[in-house]
Amino acid sequence: xxxxxxxxxxxxxxxxxxxxxxxxxxxxxxxxxxxxxxxxxxxxxxxxxxxxxxxxxxxxxxxxxxxxxxxxxxxxxxxxxxxxxxxxxxxxxxxxxxxxxxxxxxxxxxxxxxxxxxxxxxxxxxxxxxxxxxxxxxxxxxxxxxxxxxxxxxxxxxxxxxxxxxxxxxxxxxxxxxxxxxxxxxxxxxxxxxxxxxxxxxxxxxxxxxxxxxxx
Length: 216
What we know:
Layout: E1 21-28, H1 37-46, E2 52-54, E3 61-69, H2 75-89, E4 95-99, E5 103-104, E6 108-112, H3 117-134, E7 149-155, H4 161-170, E8 178-182, E9 184-191, E10 198-206, H5 211-214
Antiparallel strand pairs: 1-3, 1-9, 2-7, 4-8, 5-6, 6-7, 9-10
Helix pairs in contact: 2-3
């Protein structure tokens, strides 16, 4: 493969196999949310790219924190982690996220989070919740570089990234941004068997009420 080209996002990463699912925390979005409007906005352009699978409204998400494969994590531990997360997250106010403009990398067309501090704070809370149950040394992904982002399309093959960037520019999409109010984080059971991310929501944990609203 030449330098500067995309490749298939759906290769089997370590630990993944057909039929296997993963417990993880995501921020998901309602079908009438500002983020969901990006699906229609980008659809005509993504339809011109045969090596990109567009994400539908039901698949939009920002990945926050993994827990582990479902066949390796006890159901009781999942419940305890969710309960601990509720305690930590309830102390954090909802926040506004600025998403975009779009970028192209080897596996996706996505929208980085321009002000990641809110998502970083939620991730810290979730890692504390996992540590409450498993201990700090057993928190997965603790030392990973966290770069929150929203994916609009996943690559299924080789294409020059420069050409994809040029297409976004020609179609006046290269500077698009959207604001979203984040009020909750979801614990999900994630599967990727069908070359798309599909999940079952296990728990939805709301962020706490801002201090300025508590008196009302």
